[in-house]
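TODO from last week: model Serine/threonine-protein phosphatase.
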Amino acid sequence: MGNTLSDSSSATSGDIWDIWTKDEEEEARQLAREYGIACTVTDGAAGGNDPTGVSVSATGAATATAGAPAADAAPQPQFSAAMLEAMAMDPPYADDLCGLEPDPNEEWEECPPSPRIKESRLTPEERAKYLGLLDQIFHPDTILGVRVDFDPNDVAEVCDNVIPYLESEPMLIEDVPFDITIVADLHGQLYDLNIVFKAEERDGKKGWENMKFLFLGDYVDRGRQSLEIVMALYCIKMLYPDRIFLLRGNHEYVSLNMKGGFALELFDRYSEEDWPQVYSKVNESFCYLSIAAIVGNSYLCVHAGISMHAFTRRHLLAIQKPVLEDKKDLLIHDAEWSDPVIGLKGSTYNGMRKCSVLFGLDELAFALYNMGCTTLFRGHSIMNHGFEIIGGMCISLFTATGTKNFNDGAVAIIDADGKLSFRIIKCSPERVALVNKLRRRDGGVVDVEDDCLTVEDDSGDGETLNLWRKK
């Protein structure tokens, strides 16, 4: 193995090949016979440092005695030319192929993933139907809080039809271009989504026809119109597949939206027979959402943060859809739940959320280097002013307004040159009061639960948790 033959006069206590007890002498000789390792026995009384008088060297059987082969040498394995070539690779073949011979019979075939769907595949009838649904969803009465009476069969049809579009996208979408708007948590607030789209309306076209959008997840729970948001985004995805990209948030899992308000919303809207079917069908479509995206090959976008477990492009691309639960895969779980902390070195358990990790800027820098990116865009935490820039490497966004402490919302706008700006959505106290009144009328009020963290600048008062300062 590359060590040279040593004797007792040159052996030191740090030499791993030294045998330090008499009881191990016979074991050493046996190893020498089995593996063809050169074994030299010296007189321990001759002044050497080895009390046993035995030294073992891994020079190989071929040089055991003056270059002659050892009598009991084990046969050396014979490698093919392809294996020898793989062994000479940098990094060594074992790192990637686990020591297996790479395609000895040249029978392996490249199986590249199917390209993502970039053109709508809707029939004229389906296109007219989904455009009609969008008109209902963004009707002024619906924006004010009136819920659309979706037929359960229509919901099931939309969810079934959007799955091929979502499934065609890898778990990490790498080809998202610049000139895009990044939208964070909406949490069932259709009013805020309408503002986002209205800001891009011009020349008689809808906002989604003029601008591309990347959504960071958390479409459901807390708000009253989660189903409207899901139906709107799915219809737009099928009409304009290359203009809208949908990532998955931690609320797009049954384990959380069952108790976060989405199930209660559907229970309130549908009969006892229909609401479980609608709920199951929507959550089935969530299983095909991607986890991360890279904008302009520079900006990494996820719902929450990075993972300490193999957070690389290759590992993310290797994850296959559908994904039922995030807790089965730490890479997915951390991407949906982790949080950055200024002042923390390395990572630690996320005690504030009772799961996943908190990571410092050093871990973030390392992860961005591995991903070939410069900046992380994330949602997941309420920003009192809609956004915050953390350490020059992380940008946190929260789009839903009035979720807590009358917070503002924000979206990030990346122009064609990759330059960044923000659009602030001011919170309307009157709007918050109206929503609270409607929620009480609905018969179920879901409070902001423990997984919702608020970030406030240093000038803020009260007991709001400042997530970015390590205590």
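Done. The radius of gyration is 30 Å.
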